[in-house]
Amino acid sequence: MISVTEKVTQLVQPILHGHDFYLVDLEYVKEAGSWYLRLYIDKPGGIDIEECAVVSQELSDQLDVQDPEVIPNAYFLEVSSPGAERPLKTQQDLQAAVNQYIHVSLYQKLEGNKVFEGTLLAYDDDQLTLEIKIKSQTKKLIIPRRQIAAIRLAIEF
Questions:
Q1: What is the mean pLDDT of the chain?
Q2: Phi and psi at residue 147, in whole multiples of 5°?
């Protein structure tokens, strides 16, 4: 049986493609007794609220004509931008983030820390290379991918 998120992804991809947007993330979750279908969309240069509203309406129209079994519970549909500190989940996300400032959380400590922020210099299937600042010094840090719990864009202060 196809999951709710897989079915919604199939429905929304043509809509997004038609507007030159892309799907960053999609979740179907229960919070405080209510179900939420959340889509995070983006495009080069960022997405605005009107564009989110267009996708929300078009997807809502598509969902209304689907078999009720696709989404078995009443839900709230939310379509939004992933924000300035968006998660980086795919190879495409990482490629777009090269030379940008990112936040990396680890499962276990590396060099005494579980969290690093720095400029993403490179990545491959096995590791990320970050340029981090320690006081007034910069250092290249290699982080094994298997140790990474989460990666997101970050705002440098």
A1: 92
A2: -90, -5
CA dihedral of 18, 19, 21, 26, whole degrees rounded to 10: -70
Whole-prediction pTM value? 0.72
One-letter amino acid of 46: G
Count: domains in the chain: 2
CATH classification of the domain holding 129: 2.30.30.180
Which residues constitute the domain of residue 35?
A: 4-80
Single-letter amino acid code for the residue at 90: T
Residue of 53, 91, 126 lying closest to 39 (CA atoms): 53
CATH number at residue 29: 3.30.300.70
pLDDT digits (tens, 9 = 90+) for 29-77: 999 999 999 999 999 888 999 999 999 999 999 999 887 778 888 999 9
